[in-house]
Structures are given as C-alpha cells and as structure tokens.
Write a structure and sequence with these properties.
single chain; 581 residues; alpha+beta; Beta-Lactamase; Helix Hairpins; 4 domains; five-stranded mixed β-sheet; 17 helices; 55% helix; rod-shaped
C-alpha cells in the first residue's frame, strides 16, 4: 500500500459528480460567463439588425423581430434559470439555452435577404455551452445538429441558385468538421479543468486541516516554539514561548522583535548564528525575565529552509524551561531513592527486631532500677525506630493501607508544649525558643508521634538558620474557626531564594548538602495523611519590642471533639496514610 493510501488526507481524485460540479463555485462562474456572453451577443445582434433596417440596407422586419426575441430570451435565461449543468443528454435546460441559440442563428442564416452577413461562426457559442456545461455526448450531438442545419442550408441555397454544388457543401462540411473539433477539444479541456479544480479544492482542504492540526499541536506544547526570520522578527509564537519570554509585548503582540528587549539578546544571537552558518544549534541560555528575575532555558534551533533557498530564511527556536529538565531528573532520582529506601527499611527491620527481643530478655534478668531505666529507654527508642521504618515503607508505597484505620485525637497545646520542651532539652536552642500555646487547648485529628516528627523537623530547620538572639524561634498556635486551628513555627532567618522556595516540599531537594531533602517532604505527606495542610510564608513577629520578618511554616489542623478515638475517619484513603503501632 502506498503512502497516500495510509494518509489521513488522501490526495486521490475521484471523478467529478454532477452534484459536486453543480455546487462548485467554478461551475457558477462559468454559467454566469456564458449567460453574459449570450446577453451581449443578443444585444449586438438586435442593434445590428436594427441599424441595417434603419439605414435601408436590410428591409426584413422578421430578422429584427428574431433578434429582439433572442435578446429577450437571453435576459430571461440570465434572470430566471438557476445555474446548473446541462446533463448527459438533451433536456429542457438544453432546449432553453442551446436549442434557442440554434434556432435563432439558423433562422438568421436562412432568412437573410442578400446583405451577405455570415452568421455561421455564431454556432460556436452553443457548442461551447454544451461542451463546458454538459457532457461529451451532448456536445457532439449539438455539433452534429449544427452540421445537419448547415448542410440543409447549403442544399436550400443550391436548389435556389442551381449552381455548382461543390462550393455550397464543401464549406458546410468543413464548418461541421470544425464544430466537431471544437466540441471535442473544449469538452476535454473543461473536464480537465474541472478535475484540476476538484483536485485543488481537495488539496486546499487537506492543507487547511493539516495546518489546523499543526497549530493545535503547537499551541498545546509545553515547550516554547518561536518562528523567527533572519532579522530577529518573531513571525509566530505559541503560548508557552510567550510565557517563557516574560514580557507584556510578547504576551499581547501578534508580531514582535527579539531586539525589543535586551534580555532576549541570547535568543537573537542563536538565531543569527543558525541563519548565517546554515546549521542547527543547541545551547543553554539565560534571558532576563523582567521583575521575575532571570530564566534559564535550553534552546534548540532548526532552519525552516536550507541556506540560500528562495524566500525568507526562517529559523525555528524550541525553548525548554530548565526547571522541567531538573524536575525530570528529580523524578528519576526519587524513583531510585525510593527503591533504595525500601530496601534499606526492609534490612533494618530484622536487626531492629533482634535488638528489641534481646532488650526484652535482658529486662527480664535484671533487677537494678538504673538498668531497668536503660532497658526502658532502649525499648522506647526501638519502637520509635520501628514506626519510622513503617512510615518509610508507606511513603514508598510498599505496605498495604487500611482504609478504615484508627486515628486518634490529641490535645494540641499540651502535646506541642511537651514536644517543644523535649526538643529544647536535647538541643542547644533553649535560649532562643519562645513557645506561646495558650490559644491551642483544643483537640485535633492527628497522631502524636507524627506530630512529634513534624514539629521536631521544623524546629531543627529553624535552629539551623535562625540567629543567636532571644526569641529567634517562636512557636504559636491560633484557633481559626470552629473547624480549624493552626500551629506555626517561626524563625528570623534570611529569606529563601525563589529557586529553593519553589521546590521546598519536593523529595530529595535541599539547599544544604548535608541534608537528605526528605524532611519537609515527609512533613507534608504526614499532614496530608491526617487531612491537615502545611505551607511556607514570610511573616512578621515581635522580637525585643520590634517587628521582625522571618520564615514561618504554618500547619492547619482539623479540630475534633475531645473524645478518645474516631472509629472511622471520613476521608479518601491515600497511599501516604500512616499505620499506628
């Protein structure tokens, strides 16, 4: 099967049907042309016969009447007859148009009264009309009828004059042969033109559909596409490219120039390199993004036509945000680290179980209260490690989830105060910590150990970046409404870079090379697993009597009645929900 047979836009041309020809613009144009020609011819014939009669050259009122009747019929046919093909054979339309022409021209030729006007060439008009608007059979039949009329006229003239018959019949026969040739050639040419017109219309339709498909695909691309000429004028740009260029002119102007903005110079430089060398280029560039800062792009250029080709030398630029490439790398890294963390978690569970069992056996044999306290510490921390391993397995989507898991409620103020006190005891940031939880004596839906992990992680981050001043780290709670309450951890650290803030809660992303980049990611997943939310913002707090701006992480909890445990949590279970021990 050929390529054309597999194409959506099949270029094969079918035969032109009568209905499609009737509805085509080309047929209507030809029809109007013939009707106008007949109208003008009728007007000329009427004016000619009237002039001959007025000047006394012709004394036949019949000829004037025939021309007047023919002119009236041409006016009526132009105004009343709807454009349509003549068909394959003789019909009423043929009789109304071609038949009237034949009768009128034959009557003029036979009834002329010696003024030696030859009306024979006028028979070409009905033949052309039948050939172009009808079929070959109709055209040849019309030519045959005209030939019979000419031969009949020659016979009539011979009988009247009784001269040499050769001249009469030879002229009629030659004219008839010419009319047959005109009928054949004009029908072939009109059929060829009709097929070419049909082919052109189909090609135009296929090109229009293909252009619309291409435009739709380009408009939907996440990568930017620019079509630039050799002078730097952007002829076309998809929405992604306009967004990446980051300019009001690029967003709203139909056509703009890369020379309009100084920050676009790297793109202009790549365009000129491609058009001058005739080769494609690929490079990482940084363009100015106005008030939004610089934008790092990966740019590939392709020439739309070979160098030296006729017409404009257009260059196509493909723009890709470097953040997208980095996101793909992070996704691949996440997949690898997920497999690694799963394997490590499985390996940790066996020695951890052995440690817990050995500690239990040791606890049975000792009586010293001091040693008992040590085995209790080992037992508590072993249980905590076991819970962390289970959480990692849940994040890695390995452990099956129970959609009807039991979730407890905690008294936020008391629990958060205890966690902050424990953290302050173990860290060196006690002097910098200020805890204000008087407004948080409410119960929220959360697991106590998960809340400890989140709060300790946020406090560790605050301690790492906060100053050494008193009240540099503050923990606040606030009741928002009857259904929500918030817990915030604030520090007076420097503002984060936008590139860091944008990926703050993504896994394995950290501005500190010593960090795994999982802390804030796990905090977010633990919050979402309990129908809570965590956000980052810049906010002001009072320190030493003045307002200081700092980094703040705010957790929004759902409040719950202070009654033990919910039997079933009405929420959509996700792969990130944690199992309590």
């Amino acid at each position: 099967m050929s390529t054309a047979d597999n194409s959506w836009f099949d270029p094969r041309i079918e035969s032109v049907s009568e209905d499609s020809f009737e509805d085509s613009h080309e047929m209507v144009r030809q029809w109007q042309g013939f009707m106008t020609a007949r109208l003008l011819l009728g007007l000329v014939l009427f004016a000619l016969q009237s002039s001959l009669y007025v000047t006394g050259t012709s004394h036949s009122q019949t000829l004037v009447a025939i021309c007047a009747a023919y002119f009236a019929s041409t006016v009526a046919s132009k105004l009343l007859v709807r454009p349509r093909p003549l068909g394959q054979s003789f019909n009423l339309v043929w009789g109304a148009l071609v038949g009237v022409d034949l009768l009128a021209f034959s009557a003029l030729q036979l009834l002329q009264d010696g003024n030696s006007v030859n009306y024979t060439p006028l028979f070409a008009l009905p033949i052309l009309l039948a050939s172009v608007l009808g079929s070959l059979r109709l055209a040849l039949g019309t030519a045959a009828g005209i030939t019979v009329l000419l031969l009949s006229g020659a016979l009539w003239s011979y009988l009247k004059s009784s001269g040499d018959a050769t001249s009469y019949f030879a002229q009629s026969a030659l004219s008839g042969m010419g009319y047959f040739a005109i009928a054949l050639l004009s029908n072939q040419l009109s059929t060829r033109l009709a097929n070419e017109g049909q082919r052109a219309r189909k090609s135009h339709l296929a090109a229009a559909i293909q252009r619309q498909v291409n435009e739709l695909v380009i408009e939907s691309l996440s990568d930017g596409v620019l079509i630039v000429d050799g002078w730097g004028c952007v002829r076309a740009a998809n929405p992604a490219a306009r967004q990446l260029l980051g300019s009001h002119r690029a967003m709203h102007a139909v056509v703009f120039d890369l020379r309009d903005e100084d920050g676009w110079y790297p793109l202009l430089h790549l365009t000129r390199m491609s058009t001058e060398t005739g080769r494609s280029h690929e490079e990482n560039v940084t363009i100015s993004h106005g008030d939004q800062g610089p934008m790092r792009l990966h740019v590939r250029t392709r020439l739309a036509a070979p160098r030296g080709a006729a017409g404009d030398n257009l260059c196509v630029l493909f723009l890709q945000d470097q953040r997208e490439l980095e996101a793909r790398l992070r996704t691949e890294k996440l997949a690898g680290m997920g497999r690694l963390s799963t394997a490590v978690a499985h390996e940790i569970r066996n020695p951890l179980a052995a440690i817990a069992q050995a500690n239990a056996l040791l606890d049975e044999d000792i009586k010293d209260p001091a040693l008992k306290k040590l085995t209790l510490m080992v037992s508590q921390n072993a249980k905590r490690l076991e819970k962390i391993v289970n959480d990692i397995l849940n994040v890695a989507r390995v452990q099956p989830q129970d959609q009807a898991q039991q979730t407890g409620t905690v008294e936020l103020g008391t629990t958060a105060q205890r966690i902050c006190n424990d953290w302050a005891t173990q860290s060196t940031c006690r002097q910098r910590l200020n805890v204000q939880l008087a407004d948080a004596h409410v119960h929220v839906r959360f697991d106590t150990e998960h809340l400890r992990r989140i709060l300790v992680n946020l406090l560790d981050n605050a301690c790492r970046y906060a100053s050494d001043q008193a009240d540099a780290i503050q923990v606040h709670a606030r009741v928002v409404d009857k259904e929500h309450t918030t817990l915030s951890v604030w520090s007076d650290g420097a503002p984060m870079d936008q590139s860091v803030e944008r990926h703050l809660f993504e896994p394995f992303f950290s501005s500190d090379s010593r960090s795994s980049g999982l802390g804030l990611y796990i905090c977010r997943e633990l919050c979402e697993g309990h129908d809570a939310a965590i956000i980052y913002q810049r906010n002001f707090r009072k320190t030493h009597g003045k307002s200081t701006e700092g980094n703040e992480f705010v957790i929004t909890f759902k409040r719950s009645p202070p009654h033990g445990v919910f039997s079933t949590v009405n929420r959509v279970a996700t792969p990130w929900h944690m199992h309590p021990n």
